[in-house]
Amino acid sequence: MTQLPKAKYRKDYQEPEFAITDVDLTFNLHPTETRVTSVLKVVRQGDHAKPLVLDGEQLTLLSLKVDGEDVAEDAYQCNEHSLTLNTSLKSFTLEIENSINPTANEALEGLYLAEDTFCTQCEAEGFRRITYYPDRPDVLAKFTTTIIADKAEFPYLLSNGNRIKQLDLDNGKHMATWQDPFPKPCYLFALVAGNFDVLRDEFTTREGRTVDLELFVDKGNLDRADHAMLSLKNAMKWDEERFDLVYDLDIYMIVAVDFFNMGAMENKGLNVFNAKYVLANPATATDQDFLNVESVIGHEYFHNWTGNRVTCRDWFQLSLKEGLTVFRDQEFSSDLGSRAVNRIQDVRVIRSHQFAEDAGPMAHPIRPDKVVQMNNFYTVTVYNKGAEVIRMIHTLLGESGFQKGMKLYFERHDGKAVTCEDFVQAMEDANGEDFSRFRHWYSQAGTPVVTAEQSYDKDAKQLTLVLKQETASTPGQEQKAPFHIPVKWSAYSEQGAELSLSDNNLLHLKENETTFTFDNVAEKPILSLFDNFSAPVKVKRTISDDELRVLLAHSKDDFSRWDAAQSLFTRMIEKGINDHSAIELSAQTIDACRNLLQANTDPALKALALTLPSASTIADNYETIPVEAINTQLKSLKTQLAVALEDDFSQLLSACKSEKAYQLVGDEIAKRQLKQVCLSYLAELGDAATDKLTEQFDQADNLTDQLGAMQAGVWANHSAAESLLNNFEQQWRGEKLVMDKWFSTQALANNEATVERVKDLMTHPDFSIKNPNRVYSLLAAFTQNQPQFHKTDGAGYELIGSVIQQLNTSNPQVASRLLSAFVSWRRYDEKRQQLMRDQLESLRQLPNLASDLFEKIESCLTE
């Protein structure tokens, strides 16, 4: 590394010294020497004499003109990061010509060429790899884009906005010009050129305007695009009905590409998607894939208003658009599908990933104060915890109050780049509320721990509930002010009858300690606290197993029923770990599980409740993570449940089989989910399950069932595993997205051969280190395999460390994601700590260490 990257601080924000009102771009596309001509209308902001500084990386400057005249060499300076123009003009036209090499751009930021398609990714700071420009989100300009390319190779030339011109040129080339009428930051710029199959449709807005919908996929994949198109139309309709927001251009385009670092990108009018969030049919996509497509299509569409029409002032405000839009896509999925199932899955992400991030050296508030490399802050904290913060605002205000706040937010800020504070202020002002204490969710990192103590005075018929909150220190934040924590609650008798103790089922914990008193309480109640996971906190309380079983059987809140089951399982596992003893499965627990299996309730909820807590969720409860003990206890509990409930699982497996052809409808999805959980337990019984595994695999008319059988066999280390893997590979070799699941299944296998197998799979013809999806499916998946990645011989660490070194210069964004596996290294035993530290130190010494990696490594190694 030539020089150490510098941190940027939110407090240092300054408004742009120059505005760009209009941008006219011309691209003459070429695989290794694309020429970019940029004509900028520049206006000095305020009374100052500072030079114009434009960002630019990996560019070759060819010419520079101001108001049509060449700029003298002594009037500008150009280096590897910027172009500085010395001028005193108040307004002028700047014309820049530069060249770039899209083929060499393996980082997939800026303009790149992959598999014969030109594509861009500009968020957060990729536009500076296309041309010189103030690459910051608070510079909003109207873009006109002309693209010139060979017509035979690149018949489709796409960019933002509406197409205003297209024509054929000499030498077999053609051109297209696009104009976006809405001012936007450069991170929302997009260009795609390639040869595609196109699915066309249209949507009529409630105002009666027809919007053309176009979905571009690789040749031969048209039969996998229908669900994405349906999801888009559903999202457009939902946003009109739920949020009163209508689409604003004549056309909406989505392009699916296989080489893409992120999930998808909301560029105005031209969304670029990772193909795995577009392509889906029953043979090549699971139920979860279909749901993910719907969710991500919705997410990117919803950004048109929450992100594009109102954007971020600076990147510290990222959660302004992402937390809000994740909340919106969660609500979309919940309104269209099962609200309870979606809520539980969202909570699982928080508990298994976000809590760990809050406890590690990279802990940051949803609105960070310090950033070295912005790519490192596209995190589960900014996105998912950010969505939980928005959900708490919704809980505090209700749907009507929340929508009043949204309306005021858009009235005030449409067409502007604003802050998280502007959003909270709009919510306050629209509802006459005071959110001063609530703002700590934006400024403080860490997971609050709420301790609940309840006492019941039988004679006075009075219930007292004391709630205390405490948040551990995080890097740069020793002391924590109390949060405003909304506590949804309900109460039950010992027989499971719901008790009405108050007209208000929402408590407000705003201080470090608050006491709540309830009078006229006829019997000692069992309290269900934080119904629907009303705040992203951990809860400590004294509650008996019997009381948890009452909540599991009778709570009216589906999340709380699931949570009771998880608490029971977690207790058994932790008791075994702490006592160094084998798990003892009580008759009461077996009965509770059996009753749940036999209950007349949503099969998907049964499946989720009977899915054991993940190793990472259990690990979160320990300062020093006992890797082997967690693995042993989880395995033991699953096997014991399989033995005790074998007949019940077998009966349910049969009952969930469908005689009908595959249907993507809620009750069928739920049955397949439950069927999969039953099969995963039965696979633990060894050869007794062989016929069930092979039968489901062979007879499946959809990927959900076929993959489910293979995963059950592989993850139980069943004797049928190898034949299932081989048959799957023979059927799907060459189908990239399906093979990704084959890679992941093996990377997550809990056996001693996994590390070597992952190494071998890196030489498989369907694997490519240059493709982010392949890296995520095999190597990122392997880092989630707690017992095998953390083997005490260090082989897992060495493997991932070597891959990070390989990706450091070619794709630092992907390398940084893999590096996340080492971030919590201090939470392991001394031997593992040393092995992980060795990898971090080795990476730290790389002469050309990418800033993406530098920031994380420095945070990890700082004492």
Secondary-structure blueprint:
Blueprint: E1 8-9, E2 18-28, E3 34-44, E4 52-55, E5 60-66, E6 69-70, E7 76-78, E8 82-85, E9 91-100, E10 110-114, E11 117-121, E12 142-150, E13 156-159, E14 162-168, E15 173-179, E16 191-194, E17 197-204, E18 210-217, H1 226-243, E19 251-257, E20 264-265, E21 270-274, H2 287-302, E22 311-312, H3 318-336, H4 339-358, E23 370-371, H5 380-413, E24 417-418, H6 420-431, H7 440-443, E25 449-457, E26 462-470, E27 485-492, E28 498-499, E29 506-509, E30 513-518, E31 526-529, E32 538-541, H8 545-554, H9 558-579, H10 587-598, H11 603-609, H12 615-619, H13 627-644, H14 646-655, H15 666-682, H16 690-699, H17 703-715, H18 721-732, H19 736-747, H20 754-761, H21 772-783, H22 786-789, H23 795-810, H24 812-819, H25 830-844, H26 851-861
Parallel strand pairs: 2-12, 18-19, 19-21, 22-24, 25-32
Antiparallel strand pairs: 1-23, 2-3, 3-9, 4-8, 5-6, 5-9, 7-8, 10-11, 11-16, 12-15, 13-16, 14-15, 17-18, 20-21, 25-26, 26-30, 27-28, 27-29, 27-31
